[in-house]
Write a structure and sequence with these properties.
heterodimer, A: mainly beta, 6-stranded mixed sheet, B: mainly beta, 7-stranded mixed sheet, 4-stranded antiparallel sheet, 11 strands, 0% helix
């Protein structure tokens, strides 16, 4: 069974609009971390935002925020005021347990920002 | 220095060749990772070294051989690869392996096996 599910293979969004990228996860651990990465066509993986399972507030980093709904096991990424440079692949990822060497990735969502 | 440096950036090799990929970081991180990424797919974990010891091998074929000579350096030795091994190979590091620690990625080695 997939641990990280991203149900949107691709999305098209008009520039300056907000966009939400979906991510649901599956874990029986109480302690886990959720990450979002951006991968432009150049290939590098860029860290965007982190949410810990015990964090009571949603994480925010500039134009990025994470809509964390623990009971639903969802961790959606919200990008406000999208820009052309936001066009990329976006991956949701999870590290389980207090100390776990493994970070696993969802299948990703390809985001296209339209001018 | 907050970089993970991978060399070479591109590599073309035949199925009988032996080559190595190199990854280096000087951030004092004690966990280092190899991921394989096929086009339009997510990164797939291959190996993890924690404090210079191999902690995870995700059932990777023996034609891939990792090595961690010291805390700053991670190698991936390649031998008798198959065309289906062509992919982007990403190295990453993190301070340790606690839950909140993100991965710092290198820019990858694009490998083509002919």
């Amino acid at each position: 069974a997939q641990k990280i599910t991203q149900t949107q293979p691709g999305m098209f969004v008009q520039e300056k609009e907000a966009v939400t990228l979906d991510c649901t996860y599956d874990t029986s651990d109480q302690s886990y971390g959720l990450f979002w990465y951006k991968q432009p066509s150049s290939g590098e993986m860029i860290f965007l935002i982190y949410q810990g399972s015990y964090d009571e507030q949603n994480a925010t980093e500039g134009r990025y925020s994470l809509n964390f709904q623990k009971a639903r096991k969802s961790a959606n990424l919200v990008i406000s005021a999208s820009q052309l440079g936001d066009s990329a692949m976006y991956f949701c990822a999870m590290r389980e347990g207090i100390r776990d060497d493994k970070i696993i990735f969802g299948k990703g969502t390809r985001l296209h920002i339209l001018p | 220095d907050t970089e993970v440096t991978q060399t070479p950036k591109h590599l073309v090799m035949g199925m009988t060749n032996k080559k190595s990929l190199k990854c280096e970081q000087h951030m004092g991180h004690r966990a280092m990772y190899w991921y394989k990424q096929k086009a339009k797919k997510p990164p797939e974990l291959m190996f993890v070294y924690s404090y210079e010891k191999l902690s995870i091998n995700e059932s990777v074929p023996s034609r891939f051989s990792p090595e961690c000579p010291n805390s700053s350096l991670l190698n991936l030795h390649l031998h008798a690869l198959q065309p289906e091994d062509s992919a982007l190979y990403l190295c990453a590091s993190s301070p340790t392996s606690t839950t909140n620690e993100k991965l710092f990625f290198g820019s990858g080695t694009q490998l083509s096996v002919l």
